[in-house]
Amino acid sequence: MNAQGYVRRQGIAVAKSSGLVLGCVQKLNQKHQFIQEYKISSDAIASEVERLSVGITKAVKQLRQEINDLADVDASGELKLILETHNMMLQDPELMQQTACLIQKECINAEWALKKSLSQITQVFEQIEDVYLRSRKADIEHIGERIFEQLAGIHQQQQYEQAIMVAQDFSPMDIVDMWRAGVSGFVSIQGGENSHAMIVARGIGLPGIAGLQEDFFNWIEDGQSLILNAEEGRWVLHPNKQDLKQFEQEKQALQFKQTRLQDYVNKPSVSQDGYNMPLMANIEFIEEIDVAQQQGVDGIGLFRTEFLFMQHEMLPSETMQQMYYQQVIQGMQGKPVTFRLLDVAIDKIKVTDAMNPIFEGENPALGLRGVRMLLQHKTLLKEQLRAIVAASGDAPVSILVPMVTMASEMVDVRQVLNEVCQDIGFTGKVCLGCMIEVPAAALVADTLAQVSDFFSIGSNDLVQYSLAVDRTDEHVSYLYDAGHPAVMQLLQMTVDAAQKHNIPVSVCGELAANPAWLHTFLTMGITSLSMSARHVLQMREQLHHLRAFS
Ligand code: PEP
Ligand code: MG
Questions:
Q1: Quick one: which of 176, 226, 363, 366 has the most CB atoms within 10 Å?
Q2: Does residue 322's CB lie within 6 angstroms of at least one atom of ligand 1?
């Protein structure tokens, strides 16, 4: 029991991101969206209305900038038109007045008021009979997102400094929203080590743990203090003096380690006996690019493009995609970038209205996802391929095809790629790689290697599908074992096929960042690894101390 009379509790979670944090609990309800809702005092009304007004002004300014920047890439003017409409809606005095009124009447914060007024407006749209006009509801959601984003940057640090958000579950987008809002850490009652929420948390460096006993949610109350050691998955609720001392020591040790690893930023990724193993980054969001460069990554081995699609309520247009991919390529300054084609999966995507028609089925993990979905929605595939190819110029860009189970899928995608290159007069080279993440793909790797320029082993899904263990389910995470002989055989078959046909083979699942596997990867014949950028230096240090073949 501590000085306030609280019972000290501690435990280990199933999953962890990285980092250490001491903060105050903030509970989120079961079905949350990370939009903070709180009451304000009547004294705070004027400043909250001002905050709203600044948020809207900033959103207008940002949008104006985007419209100006479009001139170079939006040849058809299609995107400009959409953004101009959003600009008009943003500046509609009705939106400001209605929201300010809610702040005043109900004494609630700007985000909460905005959420309420947006919902009132979208309800009106939902009642419209005309299908086209009804679909414009997405525009309202879009401008709402812009204002929320701006509001998050105003006074938010104060609000969330030291906050550790606790909820039953977080989506990958929640993780990013929390990070953008300055939250210090998170606890998710549900979730496994390889869920996309945890992958994203590792990527952006937000300390968090997942997979705890349900009771945890009942023990805690807002404002209580909590230590998270997201390096090891440990937590302590109501820490005592000894815990706090240990926390300080662990934090210092982590800082020492990070300083030591800085020596490896500009070193090549080679083993002690000279074996070259490029260490690349897995990226989900544009903000991660700077971190990746600071960590001296050798390139991007996996850019998960689906996260661009889930950031908005509307599908991104080809022009928007092209701008985004260009930004990624420019950010990497000549280092190789591999874009993976859209892979929609249930734990990644919040099924938005725009996505709904292409994302149906009882069991999406086994359903119309990855290359299957793209080949059935060729316009989407073509647009994405065209956007990547057009963005690539003469940069070293590759394209990775997700969820492949047979050679004809690779052949079909390559055909569309060739058509696209011809359409836009692209004569450079874009390599087309095959994800090996379904057991069937590993079993027919010999055939796939004949129609692919490279392989990338998606160990997260390969383990999930081989062992029938849901990667997001903490109840079966003890069975999630990449070292299982069945998985080992599939890995070896994949590498053998790649070697036979002389194509590179990387690993891009979370396994790639596991130091205990590095020697196995080297001896097995894996040619590069792709992982969360924050793990690259640690792996490079390890690589320098390893002898691959003697
Ligand atoms: C994988 O399955 O290992 C992989 C890299 O893809 P994702 O984690 O996005 O499913
Ligand atoms: Mg996968």
A1: 176
A2: no
